[in-house]
């Protein structure tokens, strides 16, 4: 077990930051849902607290078991999560126009969230077993790309563009750190430029009609203010109306009067910004910035390539979620259904994120152990 005496002041600060971020999420969800209940009859904010408790259990488990021991089962873990993902088109539950959930009794979860952990371990294990000190060549890049391609297609078919892009960030983050051989880098750049129209067409053909409309709306939301542009317009109004200090916990007009769609999930940042204003947003940004800095320190000082690659993949994923979610609520990024980490309502994403943070702590503590 990780020795608690090895936890530094930075780690203790991390726990404090996580507590406040999670509290912000629960309060924001409560303020806009009140007594609104889930399918099981439990109020959404209480359901979120339940997921947080489960997430902390997973956090402790991921921090406890040596990550090198977990990596020994990287490919079986990847295989199991991929199998669950493959079940979704067959027996998955459909909600909001997408088939993303597996339901067991009153319990439902998204296999696309679990596959992130499987893919993370599979890629890190694959690269660390034969670490490419001089950068990746074509063979290694294509082979490792297969690990990404299979879940990417399954997730894109659900459809879930945001999650499909998020799993790609783990792969790209590791590739960025490992680098490419100089000769291969030149060739790959030329080939990528030549293939980009075909890849773009393939990607476009696999998007649903409403996803295509979202991309067009990003360019000009005012073109359809009561349709596809409605979310972005209302989100911008909510954020702007928060002013410097906000309107208070239950004072937001856009969120309280239900002008803002998806208030407790994708657009929870807009709710928070309206309630707590620029000062509150600045505090929230600082919290996430400190988490990223802590994670980068873990990656740089990791004991081995495996730990470093795992940390880099997690950093890429968390940064992607934060950057895209805030960007789409501000109208500077397309709306792709990406939650705000640790704040948006959602069990699978909460458990996965806390589990990955626990893994980061694991990597740091193992470095300090003899």
Description:
With about 375 residues, the chain is mainly alpha-helical. The protein has one domain (about 5-370). About 70% of the residues lie in helices and about 5% in strands. It contains 14 helices and three strands. The chain has helices spanning about 10-35, 45-65, 65-70, 75-90, 110-130, 140-155, 160-180, 180-205, 210-220, 230-240, 255, 270-300, 305-330, 345-370, and strands spanning about 95, 100-105, 105-110. A three-stranded antiparallel β-sheet has the order 1-2-3. A hairpin with a 2-residue loop joins strand 1 (about 95) and strand 2. Helix 4 packs antiparallel against helix 5 (about 110-130) and helix 4 (about 75-90) runs parallel beside helix 6. The radius of gyration is 21 Å and the shape is globular. The two termini are about 15 Å apart.
